[in-house]
Structure formats: structure tokens, C-alpha cells
Design brief:
The complex is a heterodimer of chains A (about 425) and B (about 250).
Chain A: H1 8-26, H2 33-43, H3 47-52, E1 56-61, H4 66-76, E2 86-88, H5 96-105, E3 111-115, H6 121-128, E4 132-135, H7 149-160, E5 168-172, H8 176-182, E6 188-192, E7 211-214, E8 217-220, E9 232-235, E10 238-241, E11 246-247, H9 256-270, H10 283-290, E12 302-305, E13 308-314, H11 318-333, E14 341-344, E15 371-374, H12 378-387, E16 393-394, H13 398-406, E17 412-416, H14 418-426
Chain B: E1 4-10, H1 21-32, E2 37-43, E3 54-57, H2 62-75, H3 77-83, E4 87-91, H4 93-98, E5 101-103, E6 109-111, E7 118-122, E8 128-135, E9 152-158, E10 160-164, E11 169-176, E12 190-195, E13 198-201, H5 207-210, H6 212-222, H7 235-247
Parallel strand pairs in B: 1-2, 1-3, 3-4, 4-13
Antiparallel strand pairs in B: 5-6, 7-10, 8-9, 8-11, 11-12, 12-13
Helix pairs in contact in B: 1-6
The chains are: A alpha/beta (about 425), B alpha/beta (about 250).
The complex binds zinc ion.
Chain lengths: ~425, ~250
């Protein structure tokens, strides 16, 4: 285990993880990663810290983009040639049980890149002594489950106030909540990664005053919280350094928010600590590796469903939906033909039981497009579209909806929330 | 006779956690579709509250709720507008803060606007989260044609328990869910409160999406009844209502 001897209790816990994974796999309950991690933590509550000891750990958190950024960062930190393995919770199991499972699954890996649920970041920082922490953005998520977004920001801030200069914090300077959280850390790399949805950032997280935006920046009108000087920021299709130099961003994943994810991942890779005497990649090397990632967990993959070619896009909250609507506009501006659009919305446990957030999404922007509303909660969506004055058809069954949208052989774009997306990905 | 109607969404920077801005959108569209000239205003907390015919006050977190109440008391526009006949839809945290008192995050009583005779305290039991079905009855508001509203359906998410005093009336009786939580042991009994043209409810977020008759009741209040509201094709709202009423847990 990375040259670090685990005590008997931790060894027992690791065995419990492996056994639970094996059992779960045999019972056909998926890879069983979370079940195994839970079993291990039950035997040894300090297992996560012990598994992380002796490894370099990078943490990625935020409301949106963390799965993608984690994947891109893992690639950026994987040198070419005979691979030095990187431990990574690529299945999206982003709570401690998932982190334990990922570390147990890659005992040789001296580098780990972990996606972290916003509510667990403080615990992961405390237990894994990361060399890099990436903070993407903070906005409202599933409303009936997740603590208030301001409380999350305050928890991040308390955690990051306690890290030393050996922890590089890569923070999105365009998000006031992230800025507030990252500011007390001694080594912050500020990145201008944009903010797709600012409705949760109008009130100052420090003093409750009003955040005013303009001229590419933002500032509180009451206290001194303001956009920090950035070392690099998104500009056009690429990025611009503080010294004015331009950097090309080649990203296979579409949209401005994926360029933002790529930029954050590249800065994080370049800011990471050496592993086994090998230094971190340069920004350019990191970006070159990131350019080779063509798919992350099925996002933007094109699948064939009953003869309809459907591009699957995941959006879990208002910021995520807004980012996808931005992408559709970007593509139309670039000359891509309007495709029929299927919107799939569920409200199962993993989605949050309350789809009120539909009213925070600017669906008005879809006026004039062919839209089919589907999923468990297509009737909530239909009423929302009616008041957005977007013509639509309502069809509860996603396969039938795809057929209705793409029946003429047209390729279809699908935007789905979490469980609707999973169903569509798995459905053959 | 056509007139202008101003609908104001109050402090979306503080109150609007649950898509509550949707109520403003729904009211504005339902007025516009009847040929009424509508101004839909989103009024931030840092500026004086504008005069409007109909105010929508949304839900929010504990801190912003206290701040919003202080701003509204200091500003003074809302109580003055209500005294002049403006209508108010107050949802969740908004409902609590238009009452006489409500609890802050630590459970301390905060002075509300007193537009409804209702007092909210911190509940001792579990947070009320889930589908609500509530039936209007004697004492509930009547539509322009003198009828009761249809059964109300919505989603609640709150920790407070609200007692409605003699100066206001309850909106409905709870069939499923918790509502005001004024039954035995903080359990269900009644839901919401109203008096004059002020109506408060725990059915949070876009409650009007599921209850278009409630939207039209408010529009009737806001226009002073001098505009007739032609029926709209609410087939999609009816389909949503039927689905949600069937989905609510039965007791
Ligand atoms: Zn401030």
C-alpha cells in the first residue's frame, strides 16, 4: 500500500471492502463500490485517512462539472507511456464510501484524484491532506436534500482556512461564493472560469451586502470582497494569461462550461506536487492530455435508441440546465442545425423529490424549437413550458418520446436530469 | 375595461429558493393572456420596493428571511400598498414573515409585518417535507363568482409551526401533509391563512402552477374585480393536478 504499512484494523477494513464488493458484484448489484466502502468505514472509521497516507491527493468539488473536471484532471496527471496508475472515483460515488472504494481498488496508485460532494469537502481536506483542491462553483442543487448553499460556502471556508502552503487551492474567481470560501487559504491559484448562473451569488457571502457585476468583474458594495486578480481566465474560445499571453484550449467536450472545466483541471495539474520525483506537467502538457478526453461518464455521448440517434446531456440543477441552454445557443451560432429536443425530468430520491427548480431554468430560450417533454415529471415540465410559451408535446415514456422527436430519422438532442439520464444511458 | 397591472416579485435575491419566482411568471402570463397590460417587476432588496397591485413573496433560508423582514419593515411600502388594496401571495418563509412573529435560525422570535394574524414558532418534530393536499371549506376565500377554490395541491418544506389568530382565517384543511402543523402534537390540521387580499401558504415554490384557480383568485383581487377573467385552457395544469393528487400519500 504505497509503502505505508496499515495496522491490523485497517487491513481488516480493506478486506471488508473487498469482500463486500465481491458479494455485491456476485449478487448483480453493480460494482458494489459504495457498499464496500461503507463496510470498510464501519470496521475502521479512520480508513480513508490511512488509505490516503503516502499518496498525493487532489480533490475536486463544486455544484456542477465535478465529474468531468475530475476525469480531466486524472488524465492531465497521467503521464504518457507505461502508466503510473491514478486512483479515481470515476463512477460518481463522491462521498467517503466511494473514496474508500476508489483507493482500495488502486493500491499501487501514488496519486489519487477524487470528486467530492460539496458537503464532504471539509472532511476530505482534513483526512487526506490534499496537495490540490479544485473549487469550481456553488449554486442551489436538489432543494429538499442539500443544506443551504451559503452554509456550504462557510464550511469550505473554515476547512480551507486551516490548510498550509503545501495545499494549492485552484478557485474560480468569477464565483463570489467560491472566492469567499478560498480566500483564507495561503496558496490560491485564481482562475476566471466564468459563472453560468449568478442567482445564488447576488447576496455577499461575507456581509450580506449586494454583489454588483460589471466590466468582467464583481464586487460587494458594502465590504471588500471582490473578484481577485486572476492568473488565467477564459477568453473567447481559449484562455488569456495575466501577462496577456493567449492559450489555446482544445477540448473535445462541447460548450463553454467544459472549456472552464478543462482550464480548471489544467491549472490544477500544473499546480500539483511531484510524485515519486516526477514533477507536475506544465500547463501546456496538461492541456494536451486533456484534449485527448472525448467522453466522460456518457455525457454528450450519442446513443442509438430504436433507430434514433440521441445525444445525451446531463443537467441536474438550474445552473446545469442553463449551461446546456448556453451550449445549444453556442452551437446554433456556430451553424449547427436545430435538432428536435427531448427534455426528460424525474424526481426520484437521487434527483430530489421536489421539481420546483424547473421554474428557475430559463426555458423561455427554447421558444421556436421542437420540444418533447418526458420522464416521471413530464407534467410539471409541460406546465413550465406552457408559461415559457414554448410549444411542446408531452409524452411520459422516454423511448416513445425519443421516437416522437426523431421519428423522421432526425438526430435528437436529449437533456435529462440525473436518474432520467442514467435510465437513458442504460436503456437498450 | 383594460387597465395596467403591476406584479412585483419581492426580493428575489433573498427569497426565491424554491423557484418561487415562477408564481410571478404565472400571474403575469395569465393576466397577459386575458389582454391585461402587465408589468412584471423583480424587486431587489437593496432598492426601495416599488408600488404594485400584486406582490409575490417567496421562500428562503433563515438568515435571508430575517433580513427580508427587516428590509420590508424599514421600507414600509408593502404595508402601505396593502392598506391601499394591493394583493399579496406569500409562500413558505414569505408566509411566516407576513405574520406577526416567526423564529430566526436560533429559534428567537422576530417581528413580522403583521399583515396576517399568524404566529410561527420552531417546530419540535421533524421538518415537514413532502406533498400536501388541502381542502378549502367554510371560511376559505371565495372566487369572484362566489365559489370555493378546488382542492389545493403543493409541496412543503419547512420546520415552523403556525397558529392562525382570530384576525385572519385559515386557507384550507389538510388532507395529506402537515401544513400549519397546528393539530395535536404539531400534526396536521389546517393550511395557510388569509385576510383581506393577503394570502399565505406553506405550498412552496410555484404553487400557482398546480392551482390555477388560486392564481385567478389573486388576479381578481389585484384588479379589484373590475376586469373579467375569461377562462383559459388549463388542460396541462389539470393533468398535473390529477397526477399530484393521486400521488399524495393517503392517511
Ligand atoms: Zn460584502
Amino acid at each position: 500500500m504505497s509503502g505505508v504499512a496499515l495496522g491490523w484494523r485497517s487491513q481488516l477494513a480493506v478486506s471488508a471492502v473487498r469482500l463486500a464488493n465481491e458479494t455485491s458484484r456476485r449478487l448483480g448489484r453493480g460494482s458494489g463500490t459504495v457498499a464496500g466502502g461503507r463496510a470498510g468505514l464501519a470496521v475502521d472509521p479512520g480508513l480513508l485517512g490511512r488509505l490516503a497516507a503516502g499518496r498525493r491527493v487532489a480533490l475536486v468539488s463544486g455544484t456542477n462539472g465535478k465529474t468531468t473536471t475530475t476525469s480531466l484532471l486524472a488524465r492531465a496527471l497521467t503521464p504518457p507511456g507505461p502508466a503510473a496508475p491514478v486512483a479515481c472515483n470515476t463512477t460518481g460515488a463522491n462521498m467517503p464510501a466511494g473514496h474508500v472504494a476508489a483507493l482500495v481498488a488502486a493500491p499501487q496508485a501514488r496519486r489519487a484524484v477524487l470528486e467530492v460532494d460539496e458537503g464532504y469537502l471539509a472532511r476530505l481536506v482534513a483526512e487526506t491532506s490534499p496537495d490540490v483542491v479544485v473549487l469550481l462553483n456553488l449554486s442551489r442543487d436538489q432543494l429538499d436534500r442539500v443544506a443551504e448553499v451559503r452554509m456550504v460556502a462557510a464550511g469550505w471556508r473554515a476547512a480551507l482556512a486551516g490548510v498550509g502552503p503545501a495545499t494549492a487551492v485552484v478557485a474560480n474567481a468569477d464565483d463570489p461564493l467560491v472566492t469567499y470560501a478560498a480566500a483564507p487559504a495561503p496558496a490560491v491559484h485564481w482562475v476566471g472560469a466564468g459563472l453560468v448562473w449568478g442567482a445564488d451569488a447576488v447576496g455577499c457571502p461575507a456581509c450580506g451586502g449586494r454583489i454588483r457585476t460589471g466590466g468582467g468583474g464583481w464586487a460587494c458594495d458594502t465590504c471588500d470582497l471582490a473578484r481577485p486578480e486572476v492568473e488565467i481566465e477564459l477568453a473567447g474560445d481559449g484562455a488569456r494569461m495575466a501577462d496577456g499571453g493567449n492559450v489555446a484550449l482544445t477540448v473535445a467536450l462541447p460548450g463553454r462550461f467544459n472549456r472552464a472545466n478543462a482550464l480548471m483541471a489544467a491549472v490544477a495539474a500544473a499546480a500539483s506536487a511531484p510524485v515519486g520525483g516526477v514533477g507536475p506537467p506544465t500547463l501546456g502538457e496538461a492541456l494536451a492530455r486533456i484534449a485527448t478526453v472525448v467522453e466522460v461518464a456518457g455525457r454528450f455521448s450519442v446513443v442509438d435508441r430504436g433507430g434514433v440517434a440521441a445525444r445525451l446531456m446531463l443537467a441536474k440543477n438550474p445552473a446545469g440546465w442553463t449551461a446546456i441552454l448556453d451550449l445549444l445557443d453556442e452551437e446554433v451560432a456556430a451553424g449547427r442545425a436545430d435538432r428536435p429536443l427531448v427534455l426528460a425530468v424525474n424526481a426520484r430520491t437521487a434527483d430530489g423529490a421536489d421539481p420546483s427548480w424547473l421554474w428557475d431554468v430559463p426555458f423561455e430560450r427554447l421558444a421556436g424549437r421542437v420540444v418533447v417533454a418526458t420522464g416521471d415529471r413530464c407534467r410539471d415540465l409541460a406546465v413550465r413550458l406552457r408559461y415559457a410559451e414554448v410549444d411542446h408535446v408531452t409524452e411520459p415514456s422516454p423511448p416513445v418520446a425519443l421516437h416522437r422527436a426523431g421519428g423522421s430519422g432526425a438526430a435528437v438532442d436529449v437533456i435529462a436530469n440525473y436518474t432520467a439520464f442514467s435510465d437513458l444511458r442504460g436503456h437498450r | 375595461m383594460t387597465r395596467r397591472l403591476t406584479v412585483a416579485v419581492v426580493y428575489p435575491d433573498l427569497l426565491g429558493t424554491y423557484g418561487d419566482g415562477g408564481n410571478g411568471t404565472i400571474l403575469a402570463k395569465r393576466a397577459a393572456w386575458r389582454g391585461i397590460d402587465v408589468d412584471l417587476v423583480h424587486a431587489p432588496s437593496a432598492e426601495p420596493l416599488p408600488r404594485a397591485d400584486l406582490y409575490c413573496i417567496g421562500g428562503g433560508e433563515d438568515g435571508p428571511q430575517v433580513r427580508a423582514a427587516r428590509c420590508l419593515v424599514d421600507d414600509g411600502t408593502l404595508p402601505a400598498a396593502v392598506a391601499d388594496g394591493a394583493a399579496v401571495l406569500a409562500v413558505c418563509a414569505g408566509y411566516q414573515l407576513v405574520g406577526r412573529r416567526f423564529p430566526d435560525a436560533g429559534g428567537q422570535a422576530v417581528e413580522g409585518l403583521g399583515l396576517l394574524d399568524a404566529v410561527t414558532v420552531k417546530g419540535t418534530g421533524r421538518r415537514a417535507v413532502g406533498e400536501v393536499v388541502a381542502d378549502p371549506g367554510p371560511g376559505s376565500p371565495r372566487t369572484a363568482t362566489g365559489e370555493l377554490l378546488p382542492t389545493l395541491t403543493g409541496f412543503e418544506n419547512h420546520g415552523g409551526r403556525t397558529t392562525v389568530g382570530a384576525g385572519s382565517a385559515v386557507l384550507a384543511r389538510v388532507r395529506s401533509g402537515i401544513g400549519n402543523g397546528d393539530g395535536p402534537g404539531g400534526g396536521p390540521a389546517t393550511e395557510g391563512a388569509w385576510s383581506g387580499r393577503v394570502l399565505g401558504t406553506y405550498l412552496h415554490g410555484p404553487v400557482l402552477a398546480r392551482n390555477p384557480a388560486l392564481a385567478d383568485l389573486l388576479l381578481g383581487w389585484a384588479t379589484g374585480g373590475d376586469v373579467s377573467l375569461d377562462p383559459l385552457d388549463d388542460g396541462e395544469e389539470q393533468a398535473l393536478r390529477a397526477e399530484r393528487l393521486a400521488a399524495a400519500p393517503r392517511r
